[in-house]
Amino acid sequence: MIEVSNLTKTYGKKRGIDRLSFTIGDGEIVGFLGPNGAGKSTTMNIISGYLSASSGAARIGGIDILEDPVAAKRQIGYLPEQPPLYLDMTVAEYLDFIFDLKVPAGELKRSAHIEEICELVGLKEHYTRVIRNLSKGYKQRVGLAQALIGNPEVLILDEPTVGLDPKQIIEIRNVIKGLGKNRTIILSTHILQEVSAICERVLVINNGQIVADDKPENLSSMITGDRKLTVRVAGPRDSVRKILRSIEGVRFADVTVQAEKGSYDFLVEARPNVDIRKPMFAALAKAGYPILQLKSMDLSLEDIFLKLVEEKKKQRDPHNKAPKKVPGEVALNVSGGEESAQEAYASPEPPEQSEEEAVSPAAEGKEEEI
């Protein structure tokens, strides 16, 4: 539905975006993630036809936005960061005006179409109110409504929840998720939680270039190359450790802390693309050592984003030196490998301590109950 090929935009000697290429299929909700100044809005403006590219092409439904802008724009609903509202109009007057601008005569029934959109975005009870008097959250809904007029197949949303309070953010996110059931949506944001909550796929942009393209849940394994679990097992420490290390696909396993009397927490690292949960459960059950808790230690989206951006900086600066390693500083570094884990847990008799003491804040990943 959206195809971007080698898109470049220069401002004098500075490149806002640099040879961007990606495709977005029908019905996908894609997060376009990056820090301020990364090139998100520039890309959105080019795709929507607001800006022209210095080179490359952007196509909507196979139509080049520069070669046939009218046909391409008819497939696009665009909500810029600042919604294009006329504050002295009522919601009804504004949407009526947008309908006249976007919809050819006789193509859609005006009243039924506008009523359907207001129902969809939750504006039905505010239809006669002056836009100036609406809260920021409802002004954002009016912006979404104007983007939906004409039933576009593609929605381009640039920072749709910026400046909203937490309640309004949740409401707008729910509206966007509902809209994504039968539309292609590209959502530009620098809010990491937004991507986790709404998007099925993430494009990460930094300094005008794509640095990652994957599903949110796959980005962690893409960076770390493995999967790490913490498992709490009731049983003798040495026996449990021996069983865990014998499981096929386990790269590393060792105790981290005595959680409670008779049970221990273990860090278990799987080899790339290996799911060890079922064989681990079977092996421990056979030995009579019950699993009391099992958690994934995948990187959070925040960790992933920072790591991708930092990695790109290192590639751009060949003289950048890695920071000196402080022994024991990162006990459970989710981006580290076997050596870091072995160093952290070389002690054969770890002291009894709380789980919070065992895992430094800098090393914590996003833990999800399994």
Describe this structure in words.
With 370 residues, this protein is α/β, with parallel strands linked by helices. The chain is built from 13 helices and 15 strands. The strands form three sheets. A six-stranded mixed sheet has the order 6-7-8-3-9-10, sandwiched between helices. Strand 9 (201-206) and strand 10 (209-214) form a beta hairpin.
The helical percent reads: 25-40%
What is the chains' assembly state? single chain
Instruction: Tell me the span between the first and last alpha carbons.
Output: 35 Å
Write the H/E string, N to C: EEEHEEHEHHHEHEHEEHEHEEHEHHHE
Helix vs. strand class: alpha/beta
- Beta strand %: 25-35%
Overall residue-averaged pLDDT value: 80
- The residue ranges in which pLDDT falls below 50 over 5 or more consecutive positions are 322-370
What characterizes the major β-sheet? 6 strands, mixed
Radius of gyration, CA atoms, in whole angstroms: 26 Å
Number of strands: 15
**Strand sequence of the main sheet, in spatial order?**
6-7-8-3-9-10
- Label the overall shape: elongated
Count of individual helical segments: 13
What are the defining features of this structure?
alpha/beta; 13 helices; 370 residues; six-stranded mixed beta sheet; 35% helix
